[in-house]
Amino acid sequence: MRIVPAVSAVMALGLSLGASTASAQTNTANITARAVVQAPINVTANQNLDFGNVFPGVNATIAATAAAAGSFSITGQASAPAKMTFTLPPTLASGVNTLTIGTWTGYWNTINSQVGGTAFIPSAAVTPGTFSATGNMFTFVGATVTPPSNQPAGTYTGSVTLTVTY
Amino acid sequence: MPRRLLLLTMLSLGLAGTLTAQVTLVGKRDLDFGTVMQGVATAVAPTDPVRSGWFEGVGILTKKIRLTFTLPTRLNGPAGATMPITFRTTDGVAQDGVSGSPQLIFNPNVTTTFVLNTNAKYWIFLGGQVNPSPVQTIGSYTATVILTVVVF
Hints:
The complex is a heterodimer of chains A (about 170) and B (about 150).
Chain A (H helix, E strand, L loop, with lengths): L2 E3 L4 H7 L8 E14 L3 E6 L12 E3 L7 E6 L5 E7 L3 E4 L2 E13 L8 E3 L6 E4 L5 E10 L15 E5 L1
Antiparallel strand pairs in A: 3-5, 4-11, 5-11, 6-10, 6-12, 7-8, 8-9, 8-11
Chain B lengths: L1 H17 L5 E6 L1 E7 L4 E3 L8 E6 L5 E7 L3 E3 L5 E5 L5 E5 L6 E4 L5 E5 L4 E6 L1 E3 L8 E13 L1
Antiparallel strand pairs in B: 1-4, 3-12, 4-11, 5-10, 5-13, 6-7, 7-12, 8-9, 8-11
């Protein structure tokens, strides 16, 4: 079942079949080409999620609504829905040593405030959000670190990545 | 005599029928670029199973079909805004109207002829590219793509 191109034969065949043009049939059909233009999304890391000093054997939690929460500001299409996904580290690292981090919490708002917004659980799954009428959105993240009693001293870090799409 | 007249009438109708084989062409799917960003060119491949434009036609087995697209150069948006759209030389794909059959790439910017040598039904797919400027007006843009097919 094949369609065979016959581009080079177009003119010659068309002329030779001129006597039978009454059998040629023409059809026309339309489709629409469409696109929706939106403003690009920009995500900016505003503040690191900072646990400060933690102690071996003592869990430490920073709530998403706390002053020490990590925060991102996002700009995009005014009033448009957005999809947030997070890449979250299971541990923080200090050289070869690691510190477990988890129990992530999130909070998003259309203004730069941790009041009056929406709480959520950050994850690789999509969290829906909405840009404000001026095209702004703010996201805050918190978590818990659980250092065991033999946790080596050091400065532990990890990266939290927020991806936002329409 | 009446019987002979009836026979002639039937014969006449039969001959008329063989001269009026119908060909059809319908637009099955719009060419949909979806959401595009200001300043970011966005292309849809003709093989895209969701976003490519799609026409379905029925011709006549062993006959030729001559395809001519009337392609827009701009999409029309809000308040008179326009956005450039282009069609590359590989943005046309022709295929028998059977899933999985071989696909032939062609240039939709020029008239192209194919022979329907194995199947009267055929599919034509169309890709393209939109080129929004960095300050492209936000909103929905559309234009009409016309495909004219001559079966001969």
